[in-house]
Amino acid sequence: MSKKSLLIMPEMCSGCRACQVACKNWNQLPAEKTSMKGDFSHPPDLSGTTFNRIRFAEMPTEKDKFRWLFVSQRCMHCEDAGCMKICPTPGALYRTQDGGVATNKEKCIGCHLCLAGCPFNVPRYGADGKMAKCTMCADRIENNMLPACAKTCHTQAISFGDRDSMLAKARKMGYSKVYGQNELGGLGVMFAFKDAPKVYGYDENPSINEMVILWHKYLKPMSWFGIGGVAIASALHYFAVGPHKAEAPKEDKKEEVKQDEAK
Amino acid sequence: MKLNDFDMIRKEGPLAILTHWALAISCILLTISGFAFLYQNETIAMFFGGFTAMKYIHNWMGVLFTISLALTIPMWLKECLEYDKDDIQWVKVAGGYLSHKVAIPPMHKLNTGQKLAYLGVLGMGGGIIVSGFIIWLYPYSQTLMLMAHFVHNVCFIGIAIFIPVHVYLGAIANPGTMRIMIYGTVPVWWARKKSPKWIQEVEEGKSH
Questions:
Q1: Per residue in A135-155, pLDDT tens?
Q2: What does the alpha-carbon distance between residue A29 and residue A27 come to, in Å, rounded to a whole number?
Q3: Could you give the ipTM of this predicted complex?
Q4: What pTM was computed for the model?
Q5: Which residue of A has its CA nearest to B143?
Q6: Mind listing the pLDDT tens digit for each residue in B168-180?
Q7: How far is B15 from chain A (nearest CA, A)?
Q8: By the 8 A CB rule, do B150 and B135 touch?
Q9: Domains detected in chain A
């Protein structure tokens, strides 16, 4: 099956937050008590029960004194996913046939490492001590339905479909560059930004932390080399040089005499 | 007082034997489970009762490892920090491990390799313990978590190399060493050969 993507166009978003409600509705997530943190984003952050939220960013410019950007924040479903790289448990995070990164709570051991591996600061832990995030509505997609957020979006700021058709759509709308087309091997959530990604709260060049790369790409294979090398070296030593045999004095009188002389 | 070659002399006490077994068991279980986490190995995880159970075993074996490593400090650290010219010579002849023809300088209770290995274990063990507790108990800072994860893994490689070397040298390459881990005693003639300085001190009444 071909890879599918969400295409998000913040300029078309009216900030109605219906996608937040639809997400909670489909995933059966409870509402949470929100608080005012200086902007109109509610809830103020993603959480174990909030997989998608609209950030209300007031970004005035010289020309445009009133510029209010509504940007969806959720899992980006990276092709080169940092969370999957660092996760110690097979199957807790898995790639769906449509190219999304989904979670299996039963397999999650609650080690929190995915938090460190994610370049977008997305994974959150719920009260049950397990990681929870947007799954691109893997269960809906499998049944030929749209993800809940895309289904409910009345301005079509969120659309969903084959990756190529989503790219073609953005191009047709006049966006020559799509955020997520090539980032991290291609993101499953692509953004059509009018301005620099930074204005919308996204890194120009998102990347998995170099410590994770250094470990997984270079050092991890060396642990095999190390253990294998040691096993081979030990065997070679045993047969080439041989063990340090300490023989009982009766068979080794010369040494005893020498030691007596030394005294 | 001259010791009889065929008597037994106590090299390590019961606490040292117990501590070493605790270290050995916890370290091996930690390494195997850590290896399974690293390579997402379901077969190994199965023997631990799945990944969730393996996480708890890994964490609590880490506690046992911490306690037993801490107990070794008063027992061995002081001796492992004392070096003289015989130790330099020992390093020069590689402890006689590369050829049986070289003369090995006289050693105290522990030889230079053992002393350096202990410092290595203490250093890497310290790193893996501190980083392990950060990952377990304070996963809230991404930077700290990444650094701890990295240190944990680098120390893991070091320890994963150390264990087979240590087991090989202790159990296979130096016949007669293994019994210290069980009885704590060695024949005097054996100690005279491996640790002449120690035996000399015992005979002079300076040590026991």
A1: 999 999 999 999 999 999 999
A2: 6
A3: 0.80
A4: 0.85
A5: A116
A6: 888 888 888 888 9
A7: 26
A8: no
A9: 4-205 (3.30.70.20), 211-262 (no CATH)
